[in-house]
Amino acid sequence: MKITKTALPRIGQRIIKSAAAVFLCFVVDWLRNGEGIVFYSQLAALWCMQDYINETKKKAYQRTIGTVVGALYGLAVLVLYTHINMTEVSEKLFESITVSLMIIAVIYTTVLINKRQASYFSCVVFLSIVINHITDANPYLFVWNRFLDTMIGIFIGVAVNTFHLPHAFNKDTFFISGLDDTLLDKNDNLSAYSRVELNRMLDSGLLFTISTMRTPASLMEPLKDIRLRLPVIVMDGAALYDIKEKMYVRSYVISSDTANKVTEFLSEQGVVWFTNVIIDDMLVIYYQETDDEQYNALIKTLRRSPYRNYVKREPPKDEAVVYFMLIDKKERIETLHAALEKQSFFGKLKVLKYDSEDYAGYSYIKIYNHNATKQNMTDYLAQRLSVENIVTFGSIEGRYTYTIDRGDSNQVVRLIKKEFEPIKKPKRNIFM
Fold this sequence. Notes:
This protein is an alpha/beta fold.
């Protein structure tokens, strides 16, 4: 029986920082001789421990507003309670009615000051004061400590999460990564570590983009949370696509004259194919009707995406083509590729042939403009950015600056961190 090893996720910085913040809350509590309740400090610190610094600051502000509102209303109830003489029965009735009505006031106050997200914390602070400590000998001391404990936790949480060693940011290097078997795992997902660290570096000025054989449609889901500022190299260098603006910045296309010759050749071979055309920043995919099982299965799978536009008819004769794609049995593809090499227009094309990983016994052919290369698009982007130093990541040995081990989807981001933000070395005193 074969035992499959499951790779456990690494303990990330957020987890480590959370533990450090909890410990620091203990330290402050020791220094205060236990006058407060460290539990409240630790809750506030953990609440502020977010993936991104701006989110940490938002959570800290939200928690502060909630604490202030809740503490003020809790104090008001305490003052009211101490000035009214009641029997035990009337005391319970007073507490039930007053606290319930004051919840309305607490929540409505957060609405009035446009801080609705703080309403929950306002209620938590308010209830912790009036439910558990209204009968204390000195309830006002608890109100003060409740407020102070929370503020201590917020301060520690923000301080720990924003702390980092001094870095020297390398903003003059252009980083380009592949996608499959490089940045994404085998399930087509970007790890939480890579997502957080990549976004953090992008916010710090990292020049980074993706280079892939995929179309823009197949990038949307795995890269939806990545704050890319540069266009991505798609369709194996045939186009540059701006994900944010949803537009093609540049493309190398097969002229309509050459495209018509390719179409005529494929028709003579008795095969079916996909014709990819960019029309008004939309990728339109023309296809034919056929009984081929895998061809139809591919259409059924791909057309579910809202970013793809499939049209079942012949493409217009006057349209330039981004690329043609064929899928057929491996033997048929080999024969077709050999025949294609003998055509007079073959020199104007870039033709890729490779086996399918999804359909056993089938292979693909993709036909592009001969200038449609990742290198050409890389050179164009480097010139546009006015950078000379380019660092690339991929899974093919000898083709990239760094060859990435398959199965380690975090390796790209770790290497980028090492190159982009090395830790500053302390300056040596020349007089020593």
